[in-house]
Specification:
It is built from 10 helices and 9 strands. By secondary structure, the chain is of the alpha/beta class. It folds into 2 domains: about 150 residues, Resolvase, N-terminal catalytic domain (Rossmann fold); about 120 residues, Putative Large Serine Recombinase, Chain B, Domain 2 (Hect, E3 ligase catalytic domain fold, Alpha-Beta Complex), CATH 3.90.1750.20. This is Recombinase family protein.
Amino acid sequence: MAGKTKCVRCVVYTRKSSEEGLEQEFNSLDAQREAGEAYIRSQKHEGWVLLPDRYDDGGYSGGSMDRPGLRRLLDDVKTDKIDVVVVYKVDRLSRSLGDFAQIIDLFDKHGVSFVSVTQQFNTTTSMGRLTLNILLSFAQFEREVTGERIRDKIALSKKKGMWMGGHVPLGYDVANRKLVPNELEAALVRRIFNRFVRLGSTTLLCKELNEQGFRTKRRRGRDGRMNNGFPFTKTTIYKILKNRLYLGEIRHKDKWYPGNTRPSSTRTCGTRPRRSWRRTAAGAPPTAGARRRRRSRGCSTAPTARR
């Protein structure tokens, strides 16, 4: 009588780098899992059995080990709950050669086999390991090249004056990767520059703006809700006065480039400050205390700053 086939406990691990499309009824993770389950069924004669546990990471990069689904998978491997890990492609488990080597070492330590549905190999053989390392090396190379291309594209776009993300400054909205004037906010930007020239103090200006009910730019929070702005602080005002974007420039790293933010002369929104504005935005604005100290020494109280 033939011996009873040993039960081989199998799980499917799935991953997708971005969250795009995950809201669909049948998404990329579902497709990967379906392929993995079909492969496990094809090995039923070898005693392969699919465990009900799911290990899915939607919206997580393969270049990082900090993934909830992967952490649970490795924890179950360490407690000897799994015999075989099935993935759709090698890079679904990891795109980092170093991280992948650690994972495979852990699998070997606990007698866990690793299977790729679309790149069939056996990790228990030397040839299978060589094939795996070659595939993973190309996966890591592809990730690094893609990252370089993205960084180069962002740098080139900024040099062309395009807006590539981040907090949109007060006085602007974004349309087609360009900053366009928000007329209601633009009036407030002009007011901030003009009033600072008269007051020469961020403390006094901050108090005045808040007493008159002005608030910072309305933004959408992480929960998707739109806030109504917050009271101004001296730091907020100082950043506005120092922001060279209001001179029509875009920053990339430590360099500033001509941007696409220059409004027409009839639609100025603060991006082309008058000469008096340039003097205040060029250096640190003096506080009210500094003005009093200068006055006591007989110095000028004009709100000038270093060029």
